[in-house]
Amino acid sequence: MRVLSYSRFGKPEEVLTLAESQRPEPGPGEVRLRMHLSPIHNHDLITIAGNYGYKPPLPAVGGSEGYGVIDQLGEGVSGLAPGQRVAVSGLKGAWAQEVVARAASLVPLPDTVDDETAAQLIAMPLSALTLLEFTGIQPGSWLVQNAATGAVAKVLAQLAKVRGVHVVNLVRRAEAVAELEALGIGNVVVTAGDWKKEVSALTGGAPIAVAVDGVGGTASGDLLSVLGEHGQLVAFGAMSGQPMQISAGEMIFKQAVVKGFWLGKMMETMPPEEMRRLVGELVARAASGQMRLQTDAVFGIADAARAMRAAAESGRKGKVLVRLAG
Fold first, then answer.
1. CATH of the domain at 33
2. What are the UniProt keywords, alphabetically (predicted)?
3. Predicted model pTM
């Protein structure tokens, strides 16, 4: 079978190679999948570059999530069947034509969830849904987020709407307004000019309970400045590459709280029934059309360099996927 592997850390388009590997055999409690599609996440690119919190032993196969079809059941596996469509995340080596995964980690899919949605159903959407619940925000309250065209931010806005939470979505590009509106996401504000006044007009002066920061740097302080009293500033990402710059005065007089969110750490202690509940909601939202996931491009497994370059480009409307089947 073919895999996308790397023997040294570096730029993904330079170090990834198409290689042959032995077919994996499922052990007890495991399942072998024939993989069809897999997304290229930022953390996949960073891992290959050697800059993530986890460094795999080399040589390694890239990728961490995808959609496939069950090929073979390992000993003791029940409730699943060969030929069944499933989504899987948390893999170490998803960019392979066949993979072995824990049976308990598989998410069976209804026919109403299309293949491209299935491939990216877990990682980013689960981050968004868990983040939303992590804040404890209540229906009728306001949340503001920057980097609103990001994969997690788009899902968060859609799921918050279903739950009755109001979201202000901050973007840098004027053309991003139409991009988000096409997904049914409103309250989009371009951060040019007097954007804080526009935010206040949207909320009608109501306090903003939660601010989600995916940028860092001065953007953190901007979010804090529009946050209401006793509000939460949640650090989710650091796209700017800069430390958060926030005002001590704003923190003190608003009695604000700054919290960090990392799904990987939360999953270490999350009860299995809680995980099933969250993933079940994601499948239901995707099947009903209440959560829409976008695809920017699909590349074949032999075209990995182009795929990696495309995934690293800014201004994408959706995920870049690798087609592994065939």
1. 3.90.180.10
2. Fatty acid biosynthesis, Fatty acid metabolism, Lipid biosynthesis, Lipid metabolism, NADP, Oxidoreductase, Transit peptide
3. 0.89
